[in-house]
Amino acid sequence: MTNVHIRIINPNTTASMTAAIHQSALRQAAASTTITTTQPDAGPVSIESHFDEAISAVGVAEEVLKGEREGGIDAYVVACFGDPGLLAARELTRAPVIGIAEAAFHLATLVSTRFSIVTTLGRTGIIAEHLLEQYGFRHHCRRIRAAEIPVLDLEHHPDAAFTRIVEECCRARDEDGIGAIVLGCGGMANLTADISREVGLPVVEGVSAALKLAESLVSLGLHTSKHGDLDYPRPKSFTGKFAALSDLQLPTSR
């Protein structure tokens, strides 16, 4: 594979989580892949609700626009399990843009016929349900389980958080009739190997899954289609705090 530059976007604004995601991605990246990891300048410190996702989606779009101005980025990864702003991000670039939930679902079905999702808070389970329906994976998922830990506990109380996640993964293994587990949070990216060792099942974590899919798409020369709804947005005026978007210089040709 020729040199590939993948930009990973952490949609929340917690720098320590961005750094942890970056280190996890570096461990999985091919030798020829350059990884850069960013986060929005403003937005929620963690994403645990529909409201958080709506705000963070703007930050994701802004980070893609920054990447396009910089140039030289071959693919983007949106490193939040809700895949916030994914389709909007795809409109802004020809480069592949991969959401970690969609990537994890795809890979889990390649190693098992059924999987369960283990996420952080139960209230975010409906977001995962919406994505399963949207992406066509609902019949592959047996159950969405929550360890009932806030996202930032993954960093502030890592040992306790790890124990709760492993306990829920073991219940999924024993009760759900599954062959694999999908981890439902980008902040779990550095826990995959340890959880898999404890649980004894394939554990699919979305940041790594999205990274490897992004590398594959770039290697195959596949880009985001600009025919149809993922074409570049039509130029128009924006007002108020978004007035600067009126000056977007996006390609108009396919």
UniProtKB/TrEMBL annotation:
Pfam families (UniProt xref): Asp_Glu_race (PF01177)
Protein name as it appears in the record: Aspartate/glutamate racemase family protein
Coiled coil: none
Family assignment from sequence similarity: Belongs to the HyuE racemase family.
PANTHER family tied to this protein: PROTEIN DCG1 (PTHR28047:SF5)
Alphabetical list of Gene3D superfamilies matching this protein: 3.40.50.12500
